[in-house]
């Protein structure tokens, strides 16, 4: 069982902002979102978009589903069939020409028909809290993007159905040129591209907690009903706390970590990785992705880490290397029916000294995460 101290830190009963349960912690601890603004309750997709994009500090409560599918029409155009799609008649993913992906390849051209709403996420403005009630807060067919905005809380909402049949079909949550983000008790599912992406622009201080990345899909790049494009963390100088999350039925990028300049510093702690047919961590050393992974559970994960990574401390020993830089030992990770797990880099551990997060032993993590991660569990 997880200790009382960890439970209190993850599921605090105090209120950080109106409508928000608990308080942020880790690198995103200073996030306040919409603060004490009077909550608003949108009733249409237009009203929700208006609240998310205006210049006011907002606490936006979602007590219904917002279905964007069809609101911007459908289009048919040339896409392509990547080499990964060896099962076009049995659930593979063809690709929309996102970022000229098809144009700059030799992949054969195919016709693709997709919903346009998922391709253009809502550009959320600063100082917003977006909170779902119970399991009612669903956004269907449209993602959220934080670019040039900051201080945003997203809690207890489900983002789903973003052209899942197509690569480049849409991202659920995008961070680019932002700061102070807390993503908590969120669920993402049936996404064409990334569930969460922190792009090349700085995302700075971020906490992702108690969130469910559900990779179950009928269309997959790996042709096995497991989503490949899960988490892409490739910012510049980003510091990300990733704690208490449930990442399941994926086949890659769970997460991919890298970036430009000083890259991404990621603390992956007490997460549950389940049923991954490819790789979980992919760390791009030449892009300065640096990861401390402790107290995580890997169950039925073919490759917990891709080969050739040297900027990871994957705690497999007594964790004593953390004693000096962090003032405590780090917790060993637990692997069951999974591949090899290694990584002994410790030069960057002092970068976590002020994060204020501790790990619990891995033995109680799977049960706790399955009980607490995702929507409707506050």
UniProtKB/TrEMBL annotation:
Keyword Lyase: yes
Keyword annotations: Lyase
Name of this chain's protein: Polysaccharide lyase family 1 protein
Organism of derivation: Macroventuria anomochaeta
Top-level taxonomy: Eukaryota, Fungi, Dikarya, Ascomycota, Pezizomycotina
């Amino acid at each position: 069982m997880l200790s009382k101290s960890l439970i209190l830190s993850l599921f605090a009963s105090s209120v950080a902002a109106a409508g928000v349960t608990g308080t942020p912690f880790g690198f995103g601890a200073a996030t306040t979102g919409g603060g004490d603004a009077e909550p608003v309750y949108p009733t249409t997709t237009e009203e929700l978009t208006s609240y998310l994009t205006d210049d006011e500090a907002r606490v936006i409560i979602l007590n219904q589903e917002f279905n964007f599918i069809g609101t911007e029409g459908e289009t048919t155009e040339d896409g392509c069939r990547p080499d990964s799609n060896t099962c076009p008649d049995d659930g593979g993913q063809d690709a929309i020409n996102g970022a000229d992906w098809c144009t700059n390849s030799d992949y054969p051209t195919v016709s693709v028909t997709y919903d346009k709403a998922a391709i253009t996420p809502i550009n959320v403005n600063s100082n917003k809290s977006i909170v779902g009630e119970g399991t009612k807060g669903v956004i269907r067919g449209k993602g959220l993007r934080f670019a040039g905005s900051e201080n945003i809380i997203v809690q207890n909402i489900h983002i789903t159905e973003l052209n899942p049949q197509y690569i480049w079909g849409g991202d659920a949550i995008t961070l680019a040129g932002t700061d102070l983000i807390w993503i908590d008790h969120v669920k993402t599912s049936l996404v064409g591209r990334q569930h969460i992406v922190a792009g090349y622009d700085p995302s700075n201080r971020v906490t992702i907690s108690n969130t469910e990345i559900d990779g179950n899909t009928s269309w997959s790049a790996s042709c096995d009903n497991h989503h490949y494009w899960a988490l892409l963390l490739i910012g510049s100088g980003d510091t990300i706390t990733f704690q208490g999350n449930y990442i399941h039925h994926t086949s890659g990028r769970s997460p991919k970590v890298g970036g430009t300049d000083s890259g991404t510093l990621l603390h992956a702690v007490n997460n549950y990785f389940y049923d991954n047919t490819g790789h979980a961590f992919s760390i791009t050393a030449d892009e300065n992705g640096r990861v401390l992974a402790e107290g995580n559970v890997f169950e039925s994960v073919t490759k917990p880490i891709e080969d050739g990574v040297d900027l990871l401390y994957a705690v497999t020993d007594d964790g004593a290397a953390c004693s000096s830089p962090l003032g405590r030992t780090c917790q060993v990770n637990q692997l069951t029916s999974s591949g090899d797990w290694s990584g002994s880099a410790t030069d960057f551990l002092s970068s976590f000294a002020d994060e204020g997060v501790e790990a619990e032993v891995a033995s109680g993590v799977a049960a706790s995460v399955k009980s607490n991660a995702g929507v409707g569990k506050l």
